[in-house]
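Just scan my protein:

. . .
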Amino acid sequence: MSTKFKYAASLSIAATFITTLLSTGGSHASAQSITTPAAITATFISQPVVQPVATATPEAAIEAEAADAASLSELVEETQIPSALSNELECLAGAVYFEAKSETLAGQLAVGRVIVARANSGRFPASYCGVVYQPSQFSFVRGRSMPAINRDSHAWQTAVRIAKIADEGLWKSPVEGAMFFHAARVSPRWDKTRMARVDSHIFYR
């Protein structure tokens, strides 16, 4: 083989090798540009997750407290006497005391719930004291005052507990919804719907 032919063959092989390298490099760059995914930017927002917390309504709390007691007697025993009575609770307890202190707990509660019903009715004064001191409604009231109360007596303590139960609606009275009552020994001509007699009182709507 001549020297010129060898030289030409070598140049041809070298050129082919360089072309292949360049072609491969170009293909590789092209593949990168096609297969490499575009940059994805993820944005994270940090915010507190607020979930509503179930809270007991006043009605549910009252029902739960009453549900713990198996009887009105038990509920009265469990009811705490406030360290200081509001004027309203004082008026309510006073009415229970003077109208029904010698009666059963059911009878006392029935009297208390009548006063609560009146105060909430819109037909009578909108406060317990207003209901109790309304003229010609309760015989124990003298003007704008009640007789003296023995506040150390068991009867007063029971009346306060009953007043608290009546005020908070912790126990239904046997004549729930009654708005009027009178002593069973009298017979007023009332055009009202009679509900029932509880101890020494007759109750009406």
